[in-house]
Design brief:
Oligomer: single chain
Number of helices: 8
Organism: Devosia rhizoryzae
Radius of gyration: 27 Å
Keywords: Membrane, Transmembrane, Transmembrane helix
Structural class: mainly alpha
Number of strands: 0
Number of domains: 2
Pfam families: DUF2937
Protein name: DUF2937 family protein
């Protein structure tokens, strides 16, 4: 019975872990799309600043120095946009250069971002047909089996002692 329950645990964890490569791929696609759109905005702003004879920093300073609340707000907004573009570009590069284990270790960071949450909300499970997916599934099965097997042994340990005591009295 213990092996059956441990096997079920292994299958469940295998199914869960085998989905990570697909989630990571969908996250990377969304991240790449966000970076592409932010690149368009950044390039457009830089081009407009250049046509006005300004650098990006000078253009932002001009926005921020304005007494017009709307323009000052746009300066703050554009600064945040540039920072987001830099941050997401760096993250995309790191993901694209990471190996399977590095991506798995970064999972909490993926889930903690707006893009990660939206990816999870629209995520659709996929059959793991890549080598990476099969390796994650195999690892999940082994871990699930071992963890559930150990838990079942721990839970049934007091009952085994009682059985030994009864047998020794007879």
């Amino acid at each position: 019975m213990r092996k059956l329950i441990a096997g079920i645990g292994g299958v469940v964890l295998a199914a869960m872990l085998s989905q990570f490569p697909e989630y990571a791929q969908q996250y990377t696609q969304r991240l790449g799309g966000a970076v592409d759109e932010l690149r368009v905005i950044t390039t457009d702003f830089d081009r407009a600043a250049e046509l006005g004879g300004l650098s990006r920093i000078e253009a932002i300073d001009r926005y921020n120095a304005s007494n017009d609340e709307f323009l000052a707000g746009r300066g703050t907004s554009m600064t945040a946009t540039f920072q987001r573009y830099d941050r997401l570009s760096t993250t995309l590069t790191q993901i694209q250069n990471a190996g399977p284990m590095e991506r798995l270790q970064s999972l909490p960071a993926y889930l903690d971002t707006d893009i990660g949450r939206r990816t999870l909300e629209s995520y659709r499970p996929a059959m793991p047909v890549t080598v990476e997916g099969v390796l994650y599934a195999g690892t999940g099965f082994i871990l699930g089996y071992l963890v559930l097997s150990a838990l079942l042994r721990l839970v049934t340990l007091p009952f085994k002692r009682r059985d030994r005591i009864r047998v020794s009295r007879i």
